[in-house]
Write a structure and sequence with these properties.
Number of strands: 6
Distance between the termini: 11 Å
Mean pLDDT: 82
Order of helices and strands: EEEHEEHHEHHHHHH
Number of domains: 3
Largest sheet: 4 strands, mixed
Length: 296
């Protein structure tokens, strides 16, 4: 079963003092590209987290954000009592010298002064790191489930488009059989207008056979049907095991080969109705190519 590169996952875990929430989202990309936004005190485990996520995600433009909520008695920010006391003393002394009364709202004034708060976060404990890893694993698990759900939608989309291509290709056969007599009649009509030139009937037949063989599209049709079947085989079963790594790139290569055969069909068609069918196939294939970019 194919997976989509588009996904979102959230994981939550708690240590003795912190509740850690990690959110991961991914979009399609040729390579694995991870952007992490985590609190500064978790920077020491960022490399380890990157390696873990990279091993699970494989490909995709990925964005991770971590938020921390303190649940214990301690808080990461403390009031700097010495600074606040000093500010109050200076304000009182200034008020006496200038004959100004004391503020009505001491706390409002003092809490707005610079450096009245200090961060008291000195690092993270072992249980904090374990909670971070647990939340990260849960977020990746949720994202992979999202990718699998989107992958099933892509699978159904591709199956429908491949069937459409096969049905459209079948429509070429009636026009393919009727165009040979028309081409022959048109050439003979043009030659009949050349009254002053004597035509070697035997040579004409040889040239006619050679020309008609150049317009034959049997080989292109056979190869295109092979590519359609290979595309389905590469995707695997809808409810089966996960497809091997890199199937998105492989499906892209198959789609390119399908495009080559369709283009050759168009160049050999020499028939208005067959050209319309080729345009229809190109439209279906273009939709496949757009969605293949989302396959992991």
């Amino acid at each position: 079963m194919i997976l989509s590169m588009t996904g979102f996952g959230r994981g939550v875990a708690s240590s003795s003092s912190k509740k850690i929430t990690i959110e991961i989202k991914s979009l399609n990309s040729k390579q694995f590209d991870l952007t992490m936004r985590v609190p500064s005190y978790f920077k020491e485990i960022e490399v380890e987290a990157r390696n873990y996520i990279g091993s699970r995600m494989e490909r995709g433009k990925t964005d991770l954000s971590a938020s921390v909520e303190y649940v214990g008695d301690e808080t990461p920010v403390q009031i700097n009592e010495a600074v606040v006391s000093n500010y109050k003393r200076q304000i009182e002394e200034l008020g006496i010298r200038l004959g100004i009364g004391a503020p009505q709202d001491w706390f409002g004034v003092l809490m707005r002064m610079p450096d009245t708060f200090r961060s008291d976060v000195s690092g993270v404990g072992k249980d904090d790191i374990e909670a971070f890893h647990e939340a990260c694993a849960a977020a990746v698990d949720a994202l992979e489930e999202f990718r699998a759900t989107e992958g099933r939608k892509l699978y159904d989309f591709f199956v429908g488009k491949i069937k459409n291509l096969g049905a459209i290709l079948d429509g070429i056969e009636p026009y393919e059989t009727e165009r040979v007599p028309k081409i022959r009649a048109r050439i003979e009509e043009q030659l009949s207008r050349l009254d002053s030139i004597e035509i070697d009937k035997s040579r004409l037949e040889q040239e006619m056979i050679f020309y008609i063989e150049k317009l034959d599209v049997t080989e292109e049709k056979t190869r295109l049907r092979t590519h359609l079947a290979y595309f389905l085989d590469t995707m695997g079963e809808r409810q089966g095991d996960r497809a091997p790594q890199g199937q998105g790139k492989k499906l892209g290569f198959i789609a390119q080969e399908m495009g080559r055969e369709i283009n050759t069909l168009g160049s050999k068609s020499n028939h208005a109705e067959m050209q319309k069918i080729v345009v229809m196939m190109k439209d279906e294939l273009e939709q496949i190519k757009e969605q293949v970019l989302n396959v992991l």
